[in-house]
Design a protein that fits this description.
67 residues, alpha+beta, 1 helix
């Protein structure tokens, strides 16, 4: 995965979220759960790291509620 840069966390309330889970379904379920509470820039695919178990998903959120 690419590095998280300063822009992703430049102001209070912004966050870079990375989940490591067993499968794609779980990763996207977690993303959907947070999307119901925050404004997010969703990811559209997971990644697999050779030699590491499961998948990873990174997306970005703003803690301000989506109105």
């Amino acid at each position: 995965m690419r590095q998280i840069n300063d822009t992703h966390v430049a102001v209070p309330g912004l966050a870079a979220v990375e989940v490591a889970v067993a499968d794609d379904e779980t990763a996207f379920a977690i993303q959907d759960l947070l999307a119901a509470q925050c404004t997010i820039a969703p990811a559209d695919r997971t990644t697999r790291e050779p030699g590491e178990p499961g998948v990873r998903l990174r997306f970005f959120l703003d803690q301000e509620p989506d109105t």
